[in-house]
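Just curious: can you write whichever protein you like plus the matching structure tokens?

***
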Amino acid sequence: MKDKNKKYVVILGDGMADYPIDELGGKTPLEVADKPNIDALCAKGELGLVKTVPAGMKPGSDVANLAVMGYSPARYYSGRSPLEALSIGIDLKDTDVAIRCNLVTLSDDEPYENKTMLDYSAGEISTAEAKELIDFIESRLGNDKLHFYSGVSYRHCLVRHDSTLGTEYTPPHDISDKRITDYLPKALYGEEMLALMKKSYELLKDHPVNVARVKAGKNPANSIWLWGEGTRPALTSFEEKYGKKGAVISAVDLIKGIGIGAKMQVIEVEGACGTYETNFAGKAESAVKALLEDGCDYVYVHMEAPDECGHQGDLRHKILSVELIDHVVVQYIVDKLRRAEVDFSILVAPDHPTPIKLKTHTSDAVPYVLYRSYDEKDNAFKSMTEKNAKDSGIYYDDSCALVDKFIKED
């Protein structure tokens, strides 16, 4: 053996799990996708179900990814936007409240309160276009109390200084194609936040960036949408928690923010964009480099593509996303680690389901595969699917227990 230090890899297909789909003959994307590499790990590993969203908590990627990384949401979760703020580089004070600020596409004609959520991502608007719009909003709506910060694509942040929690918000991806009337900000600061959203529509609908997007046949980013409030997080460092030097690879600020909060290395990959067109190969190559060259013991490889396709009801590309994760990421990482003759463990899992027919997250337990190169099994279940995972009879009600088993092994 060239290296006896064990390596640990989490391959996270965001929103990869689903429900049976009539168009697929009652099967799920995981059941029909061509994924020989994941299934090979399943055949020689452990297949089961794990509950990643604790009872009473909303099934967001924030809660679920914290759980899959081994951080109990009940203890560590302080809101989604503060994690994204860490990635953007915002230094939150104890009295600040961070609020996620999407650029969205709302319908044109009706009064604001009666508009429809046409696209929660404004057509996956480019980061450059989005920055121009958010900077414009900051120049018009920002003040001593409120500051807007640009992030990646449609994902941005509003910080409200000297503030408290208590406003009720709705994630825009939960209301695709729905009238927004019943989902506007409510309770503490609700009227003020709604007023900001209304003003943003008047400012953005005729902005040159959106005029050009409409002319090009793209969805305009004609409003901000506020949601996901929270306060500064306090995560135990990953190395202190597990005794491993860890790294995170992701295209989205939320996951990068968790990594920063946990004092892990955050690896940037050129061309990583969070859709099925992301640089899958670059993520796989970066993971192997971190493990074999840069001294990392653990890498969390997060891929947003299945989740984005689920939100958009895009079945074809959700299946494709699973296949790309398998063919490009899993195959490369497994092959390189075997060639390096290192002992390694791989955990393949979604964070939550994002069913095509619902276009939003659910709290259902998700299938996982846990494989160890140095402790291969003869699993009766040869394919990672939701049904097989349920039939295995293996179930973790607490994801942290599974992560402890994965990393601590005892």
Residues 113 and 181 are 5 Å apart (CA to CA).
